[in-house]
Amino acid sequence: MKRKWDLSEEQYFGIGIYRPKTAENLGTLWRTALVYGASFVFVIEAKYKKKSSDVLKVWSKIPLFQYKTLEAFLDSVPYSCQLIGIEMDDKAQAIRNFEHPARAIYLLGAEDNGLPNQLKNRCHELVYLPGETSLNVAVAGSIVIFDRINKSE
Ligand SMILES: C[S@@+](CC[C@H](N)C(=O)[O-])C[C@H]1O[C@@H](n2cnc3c(N)ncnc32)[C@H](O)[C@@H]1O
């Protein structure tokens, strides 16, 4: 007999940064991702070097995927998983009203230039967080993760 899946068993999320500039920002986001149940983290066009401040050894608990190119990342997006760009953009919707998809990859931009149009155009949705000026990228990602788990409860 076919087992009926509960919705909670059909969801996951990953989060990552396009061209992150500092290992500290990635480390902070990675730790939030671990604590709040992400399945993976990733970077696009960047290399990660292990930090001594990583006392939780996050690399041993949740995988970091490193995509050499933007195209390699886009090719890897799994079936039935939505790409959600996190950006202050005219086409973005407020996170307040955003319903997180069951399966999502959240994509953050570089500290200096944000997300390129080539990536924004490939996102199923763009979402912005409140504020007149931009937040630190790891803080923005952590708020998105918190919003997801908060709304799912
Ligand atoms: C420091 S911001 C980049 C700012 C960049 N100078 C610009 O103007 O595009 C780095 C990343 O954090 C995220 N971010 C920061 N504040 C945000 C906000 N209010 N809404 C959505 N994303 C935000 C975005 O992913 C952004 O690409």
Structure notes:
- The protein is α/β, with parallel strands linked by helices.
- It has a single domain (10-152), classed as SPOUT methyltransferase, trefoil knot domain (Alpha/beta knot), CATH 3.40.1280.
- The chain has four helices and seven strands.
- It has helices at 23-35, 70-76, 117-120, 137-152; strands at 12-18, 40-44, 64-67, 82-86, 93-94, 103-108, 125-128.
- The longest helix is centred in the C-terminal third of the chain and has 16 residues, at 137-152.
- It is globular.
- The two termini are 30 Å apart.
- Residues 86-88, 108-109, 111-115, 128-129, 131, 134-135, 137, 140 line the site of S-adenosylmethionine.
Briefly say what this structure is.
The chain has 153 residues and is an alpha/beta fold. The protein contains four helices and seven strands. The chain is globular and about 50 Å long.
Q: Percent of residues in beta strands?
A: 15-25%
Radius of gyration: 15 Å
CATH topology: Alpha/beta knot
Mean pLDDT: 92
Biggest sheet overview: 7 strands, parallel
**What's the number of extended β-strand segments?**
7
Identify low-pLDDT runs: none
**Top-tier CATH class:** Alpha Beta
Compressed to H and E, one letter per element, the order equals EHEEHEEEHEH
Helix-strand makeup class: alpha/beta
Which characteristics define this entry?
153 residues, globular, alpha/beta
Secondary structure layout:
Elements: E1 12-18, H1 23-35, E2 40-44, E3 64-67, H2 70-76, E4 82-86, E5 93-94, E6 103-108, H3 117-120, E7 125-128, H4 137-152
Parallel strand pairs: 1-2, 1-6, 2-3, 4-6, 4-7, 5-7
